[in-house]
């Protein structure tokens, strides 16, 4: 699944620079995540970095964008042009 930022976001600006895929951007009211770019940090880190730095824990899995690990790996490879290595 990709991740989603809920309306509990306080616009603290810490998540955006942590995203290796540049999937996080400032929306009209709060930060948002582009599901086409979010790989949950698969290929980059062991855990989603935005979740690690969020002070209010407002970045859960997006139930509307369910993806398997294989799908996340394929997205990582498409976005980076690199082969996934565990």
Automatic annotation (TrEMBL):
PROSITE patterns: 4FE4S_FER_1, 4FE4S_FER_2. Residues 1-29, 31-64 form the 4Fe-4S ferredoxin-type domain. One of its GO terms (molecular function) is metal ion binding. Keywords: 4Fe-4S, Electron transport, Iron, Iron-sulfur, Metal-binding, Repeat, Transport. SUPFAM superfamilies: 4Fe-4S ferredoxins. One of its GO terms (cellular component) is cytoplasm. The keyword DNA repair does not apply. It comes from the Bacteria. NCBIfam families: di_4Fe-4S_YfhL. PANTHER family: PHOTOSYSTEM I IRON-SULFUR CENTER, PHOTOSYSTEM I IRON-SULFUR CENTER-RELATED. This is 4Fe-4S dicluster protein.
